[in-house]
Amino acid sequence: MNIGSTYALNGKIETEAMSVVMAQIAPKSAHTMEDVEFNTNQILSYMDKAAAGFPGYDLFMCPECGFHGFAPGDWPRLALTLDSEPINKVRAKCKELGVWGIFNPLVRENDGQFVKNMAILVNDKGEIVHKYVKMNPWLPDECTVPGTECKVVDGPKGSKIGIIICADGDYPEIWREAAVNGANVICRVSHYMAPYDEAWEITNKAGAYCNQTYVLGCNSVGIDECYTYFGNSMAVNPDGTVFARAPKGIPWLMKVDVYPGIVDKMRTQPGAYNFIWQYKHRGASCPDQNGAGRGVSDYNAYTK
Asked: Which residues are catalytic?
């Protein structure tokens, strides 16, 4: 396959490669604002390293809890606002380097609600263009406000990015919602701990395969007061195969290229293993269905 292009049943598809750098880092479990500052500086340092090692990359991914680590008792006191200094620093770094970035602060918004586990997408001008609140906080230890929807946003190089956070990926509904909303790349930022390393890989592969999408899973490493974070960040093709992965247990920078336009084209065709098309056109090969098939209205799992 030529770089930047592939071939489909009805002709050539031109698509640009989106280069993504995943930073598998070890955030400090923050008990003071000085700890948050330490973590912020670590993120900025990795962004600079990525620019030096992979000039021209498009998107930087930072793991869940990259600013705070996992110290739930201190979240209310150390939660950031979206105009706080740590957030402004990573926004400025995106603008300086001309890259997009996904970051995951713990946020207290001015809406009277408790702390939110929020992922933000910053564009290459330093603007926050997307906010996602984790829909499935990890029970029983994560006391954050659950989000209500998984929207998708346009990113660089024709990407349509859906962001999910850690335990979100343990629920098939979140992957499907992102895909149905048009995501051709689903970015899963995580602070995923042992002994669930097999679950991490299974769910990333299933999310990609069952929804015909790229999956980029960026996980942290290190040991805090109670958990060990194993890393194993990975990039998964739409057929569920892992095509790049970071090692377990150590900090790592990994650059991968994905081709969002290919996913968009695949989903328009009623071919085998195209589940986003097929589940909306069930039985389309049957003569009774006139090539259209049945829709999704017969599913009743979500009405019980």
From this structure: 64, 134, 166
